[in-house]
Design goal:
The chain is mainly α and 200 residues long. It is built from eight helices and no strands.
Amino acid sequence: MPATFLGLIVAFPLWYFTFNTDLIGGFWNRMALSVSVLGLVAFFAEKREMSRQLRRVEPRMLFLGVLSGLFLYTLFYGGYSVLRPFLERGASNVYLLVGDAPAAQVAATLVYTSFCEELFWRGFIQKSFMGYLGGLKGFLIATTLYTLIHLFTLNIPLMLAALIAGLWWGLLYMLKRSLWLNISSDVIWTELVILMLPLK
């Protein structure tokens, strides 16, 4: 648990740096740097287990992850369609982060971000809390922390998105304990919602 709390102490300032500063040439550069740090922290904290899981690429889990990401996007699309008057302004502010960055850079950064975030939030933080407090409590605490870190975005729709997506990915990890399932789900959802079929 000390390593877990140290990881969280690192994560919160990094998210502030990513969303609330104008350093190092743009949002996507800050995001790539921040998730690199989180990914490394997670990997070295859980090196043996993560190495074992990442070496075992199971096509079935990748396929389930793709279906999961499509389902999550469909859920968001339906919810946004119903609640658009309340969410449109905050959602538009999220898409402003994309800016005029090349699509290829955004797409690559989203894949990398999804990979590193799942290592950190599910493979490290949630796994640690589940081991210490039990599956359900650990899942709920990790999801709460994943939502709270998005307070730094000052964007209610983005926090709501983090809560819903965090609950979904946390549940997947609690049930299947597969990093590749979570990574592929995260990649598909983020590529769709941010780049390919944005909700705007």
